[in-house]
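Letters spell out the chain; the tokens describe the backbone. To illustrate:

===
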Amino acid sequence: MGGRALGLGLAVLLLGLGVWPAWANIRVRADISPHQAELGESLTLVIEVQGTQDVEPPALSGLDAFDASYAGPSTQMSIVNNRYSASVRHRYTLRARQAGRFRLGPFRVEHQGREYQTETVEVEIRGGRPARARPGQTGKDVWLEITTPEHEVFLHQRVPLEVSLYVGGVRVADAQYPLLPGDGVALEAFEEPVRQRRTVGDRVFRVLRFRTTLVPLRSGTIELGPASLRLNVIRRTPSPSLNLFDRFFSDSLFGAERRPRTLRSEPLSLRVRPLPEAGRPATFSGAVGQFELDVTAEPTQLRVGDPLSLRMLLNGAGRVTDAQPPSLVNTEGFRTYRPQMDQPDPDTTVFEQVLIPQDETLDAIPAVHFSYFDPEAAQYRTLSSQPIRLLLQPAPDGPAGTLPAQTEQLGQDIVYIKDEPGRFHSPGQMWYRSPAFWLWHVVPLSLLGAAVWYDRRRRRLSGDARYARFARAGKQARHGLRAAEQALAESDSAALYALLSRTLQDYLAAKLDLPPGRIEPGTVVARGVSADCVRRVAEVMAACEQARFAPGTAAGGGLSVLRAVEDIVGQLEREYTFPAVATDSPVSRMSAS
């Protein structure tokens, strides 16, 4: 009840400010992601209502082959050109109980006694039996794979693609985002990876799925990959003779040893078909996908010579980056300007174009046309809007664009004779005899000295790798600590302890001229670090490892560990100086060679 009252109050406020709500047009749509999934994988069904937020979650029907649960709503409001729009998206989590191709919907939505209906959505569930391992993957504990639902596509068609990391009987850590080389394609950034379990043969794997979208830029056969991904494989190597302190500094806490590894997948071939010449309309300029066109104008009541804004919104999955924007059928009687494009999300593109009517006999903005190629139907389509009615008033008297005459005020354009002489100065008080003049000579000398110092430091940073690591260690540590503070504010314990551990290890390696991953107590003490500082480092790293491997035991101590890392870095920054004699480390030897 409170939410409806708040919404009514907001509506009254917006109307008072001249912001007109677009509640009259209620539109509903349904979408499911992903459209292809494995048996047992969770899917997300979204029912979106545009034009209002006061809609209860619709009841789902026709989902006999799925287990469904309501995941909650999300709302959105926007004000563009004094037009208020609102929407609500109801999310459901689905899990299929059997394999096959299913058509879901239409789903019914009720609002203020009226019923609205979404379109149907299709989803394909693959599986029903354990997946078979590909040749060369049998017996592997960790491997990488590239998959795409379509291996034959059209030019400029957006194609979903996944890079999946399979992990079997081993533990891994520090997995990075994959690298996927490909000539003749445009790749979007990878989304946040999705975790799931999948059976391959007779084994159960933990799968990390990285999703992206590619767009082929040339026709023919395109080779993608192999994709590569770097991670650490954790192997247990029990060492009863080592105590807890020695295990930490040998990077084998609790008998776990990290071994860096780079995985590479099999390459993937994609056959790209050129766009057909038959049936290509003259207004087609390269857009490929499936779109909906919505055209609005503001204002529609104006004088001749006043500008108006034409807003052309394209909704749908497709590529319009290199295509021409929607165009007016006839621009006679209008002065037009180049449209400006904005893409708030991958499925929405907005074009704003300024029009100035020059003829008071104009009564409407002509229709807008947009042509594109539909890869699902393998044919060209053209969208057309309805003309928008205009109410024009004649321009004011006088030539358009001239300013009204202004009454000239006496004294505004005349420089008067100065009748007050002002202050007099003695001829003996010359400016070059003042102390300030001679003090200013110190400034260029100071700047020259600063320039010499900066040049020497720059040369040393570029020529001495050891000193460069030492000098940049503090700055890099402060970046890591800021990221850890953000993780602490977001209550992300896993990211907090991972950031603190990596920041401290990287700082010690750079500050003490040690190779990464080989921080031993004897070597640290040999660098002149106090025993108390070494003890605090061991305590911090032990706490980080405990939080990562036994997260339930370290709750609530994140702030104290963060402050401890800050104190260690601050102490070493104040007390530790760069050693004059080169240390015998692999990093130093590599830099010298």
Notes: The mean pLDDT is 77.
